[in-house]
Amino acid sequence: MSTSFTTNDEYQFDAFEDGSSKLVGEQQLTKLNQFAVDYAQQIWKIEEALDESINESSDFNVDPVSLYIRPYEQQDIIELIKTEHKIFNKVMLVFASLCNQVRIVKETAELRFYQPLIVFGEITGEASEGDVQEEVARLLPFMIDLSALVNRCYSIARNFVSQLASIYQSSPTTYTKFFKNTHLQTVFYSMADLFAVLITLDQIIVNNQALDSAWGRYQRMVKSVRAEPGKYGVAEEEKLWQLEKLLLSLKGQLLEGYIFQTCVQQEFDFPGVVDVRQNKPLKAEFVHNLKAIFGMLQAKMMDPSELYLRERFPGMMGLYTFYVSIFKDITDKSFFKQIWELIKKVPMISIYNNVFWYPADFIFKLMPGMMKIIGTVDVVGIRREYLKVVDREFAGRVKSYYLQVSRWMVRMESSNLNRGTTFWDANLSRIGQIIQGVLLSYHISHLFKTMIGLHMNLTAPLKPSDVRRLFQCAEMLKAIQGTFHRRSSMISAHISLMTQHLTTIINNKLDIVRNRYTGKSSYSDTELDVIMALTLTSDLLCGVATPERILIMKLCLNVIYQANYLKDQDIEDLRLHIKRLEFISDIHNQIRKVCDCSLLFWARDLFPTYLQFIYENPNQASSIQYALTGMKDVVSILEKAIHVEDPNKLIELYRIELEDLMEKFIIQPLGKDIETDLRLRIHSFLNVAEKDPFKSGIKEFGKFLELKPLRFFDKTIDIKARIAHYLDSTFYNLNTVALFDWKTYSEMRNMAFYKYGLNLLEVHLPGATLEQGLDVLEIMRNIHIFVARYNYNLNNQIFIQRSSNSKTLNTINITHVANSIRTHGAGIMDTTVNFAFQFLKQKFSIFSEFLFDDQIKSRLYKNLKYFRENKEKLDNMYPFDLAVEFEKDIRQLGLTEAGLSFLDQFRILITHIGNAMGYIRLVRSGGQQYCSNAIRFVPDLKKIPNFEELIKMHPLSAETMESSKNLDNVIQNLASNVSDGTEYFKLLVDVFSTALRSVNNQHLNNFYAIVPPLTINYIDHIINAKDKLFKKSKAIGAESLQFTDDGFAIGLAYILKLLDQNKQFDSLHWFERIQKKYEDDQRNILAESQARGMKEDQNQLSVKKVRSLQTEFELFKYSFSGARIFFKGD
Length: 1130
Hints:
Blueprint: H1 20-50, H2 77-80, H3 86-118, H4 131-167, H5 174-178, H6 185-207, H7 209-227, H8 237-255, H9 259-264, H10 280-300, H11 313-327, H12 333-345, E1 349-352, E2 355-357, H13 359-366, H14 379-413, H15 423-457, H16 464-486, H17 488-517, H18 525-541, H19 547-560, H20 568-585, H21 587-594, H22 599-602, H23 607-616, H24 624-632, H25 635-638, H26 647-682, H27 693-696, H28 702-705, E3 710-712, E4 715-717, H29 719-737, H30 742-756, H31 776-781, H32 783-789, E5 790-793, E6 798-801, E7 811-812, H33 814-824, H34 828-852, H35 854-869, H36 880-892, H37 902-934, H38 947-952, H39 958-979, H40 984-996, H41 1011-1031, H42 1047-1058, H43 1062-1067, H44 1070-1091, H45 1100-1125
Antiparallel strand pairs: 1-2, 3-4, 5-6, 6-7
């Protein structure tokens, strides 16, 4: 199907191109480009809001879903150890079970017992009498369980020794034959872990002095109750004896710091069954393994690849103490000296949060005789020297760690890290990255805890810069943890691959030993043990890497090592890969432990110093989130508190404490400084001295406002929203006090938006007037005060207060009057006129007395006589000089204390009369506005329906009929008021004109002659008032600060109408005289300046003064002419 297009010549475009099409196209392209940019920004904001950022601290506690990837063993150990060698099975089963028991005990102690003990003494408020006893009562079942745990540890220790003594002994047995050359180092590591648990419990309890004190008070309470059981309502006295005995037993076992010492001093020899103290092979095995463990600690404890070795040092020292206690052997002095040298390098170790272990104190307490080997030593001095070294290297190490962590985080976030390598190499590299992150965390955590622990122990002060670096360590730890958390899905997905890769490497290493036994027809007992161990290890590697399987594998490797087919490097590699496998299988728990910052809870006194530093350096504001996350780590410990009724109260108090610190050191000063900055910028025209940025620095407060809402426990802290609320509240409160500053605060809100991105609320306060204003009733009752304190503006029909003690002036306008009439009813209008009548009556009495005075009357007659006699010479215009002379003559009659002449007072009197007339006009206008607003819902005022007649057409109730009558009356009244209205001015003219024009008031006939000097007096008054207003001088009285006073013009027009002297005044041609006079003055000034050869700008001041007088006279003429219109209709 074809389509044809036809063109019409009638609609041909002009061939001329003026460039408009190009301009329109460019404009459309610009709009399209801007649309694309805006759209891209919106997409970026959405992506940023939904995605996690590399520099954002994560809180895994608030995640709705988390991955738990720690493998769980579903088979018992007895089912895992199944070989054809029964003796091998039995030995492996015994030691694997004991080592597994130690692992369980250690985990139980960490998860259940350490935490309640460490937080005992933390209170939820002010402690009262009896609270401590209640805390101990709540803790008592826990202490009984702790005693059971300790007894279990004692039993495991005895079992360990008994089993080892059965294997390593002089008399040959079935077991000694098989394990003659085997060093079960794994067993000794487990024993060290067991002793470490006991040492940690001792240290926690001894450090918590509140526990010992509270326990003593509880014991005294029990004694008091036992002494007088009837007083306390206790019937079973026998139970009190049992309770007291239990308390003494628990105190002796647990609270005196002898938990570990009791373990090593218990009896291990059982004659005829187990020989320990005289067992030389066992002693030799202890020495061998003890030195092996120490050798590893000595070689790697200060190495960059060290991981969890320091935590083994207390266990090793416990094992050494156990060895000395059992075998009473202190002959190896060189070994003890090596230990002491290591203690000098590592004088303190953090064993659990705020619990620090000091090996030198441990030796002084449990092996004081060993100190004779090294002589007298200054332990405190050693620690101080170590602290000096740590302090000196602290800044450099933190900086180095910061760079390493940054590089590691970037590599962890990268998805194309190992491009070009094989799959297994990339997998091994990923394992290395994960372990590197944990290594960094471990070393940072060690440095962090060492700094705090040593300064707390030695009561050494911390420099503010070091406080910042301490929190920087916490920030790095939380950043690493956050990175692991963000990459948890990747890590979880690769766990199986990593485990498979490591098991493959381990099997490959073990193939070296397997190949040595391939093809043999017979095996010795030792070789048989090795083959069984190889077989069992291979079977275990085929399954999941659970803690039980890894433990059994370690025991098997101890057996395999006796074959001596593996080189030292191969053995070291095997240990490394087993350690990696163990680490990978429990990765999340390892990361949580190594990145824990709970110590900050006991060092929270440093938090204000940190916040002050951050506030002084806003460019580091982004680190606050990491610091808050670190401060929150202790919550998991506080939740385990037993001594309080509700652990959540402890957490809430801690949260409130931190939030108050944030409020005090960040939010409050930030709000005040931003407010000050806004004020300085808005008031820059005041030439406020600027700060020197090189001396005071430049604070970028916007960095705080750019922060996303900070996650803080179970809520968020939105710094931007809080600052906006502070500014909103401050601006509103200050603006309500000073309404005249509304524009300033509006500009400050705009500046806050453009500079800081703060969307502040409009205060919606009135800019100048209040809607209700003064009430008409109050004005009516005090009209004599009102006309004296307010000035009238004719054109705007508004009254403005003359003066005020504050910076605000009250105003009265039509709306205010209409509101009052709506409140009180339209009848108030007539009452207002009646009050005004009484007021005018008093004023006209004073008015008459003034003109009746001979001094005034004679001068007016004299001036009029002169004007009439010289009318033609004066061109029918009243002479200006005559009016000025009259004013001077009146001034000579005397002045008041305020410096006012009689003519000034007469002018003020006329002004008050005019203000009263202006108020009546205002009331009438307000009444009309009220009536028009009230009747605006009537469609047509000319066709108003009669509701009473309409109701009669339908038989309705009497109440409805009465309501219709009332409605008709109201509408009729409003309609008449709107259409007709009352001419109040005409009434007031009629009521006074007859009396003032009577024969008795003939002295008022010459009033029009005083109008010229009155106008001159008025012009001088208003110019003087405006000049003082512009100068804004504080020394000038507020009474003179006026810019409008049209009451004089209305009063003058009203009186001329009353006296019927408008024609006589017009015959003076006074305003024409004024116009001519000032024009002549300007010409004379210019002519004089030209005659003297002066430049035009040299007479500007004189010309300006004349023009100012001329302008004011013209303004008065307009006001006076307008006022006369009100009184023309007769």
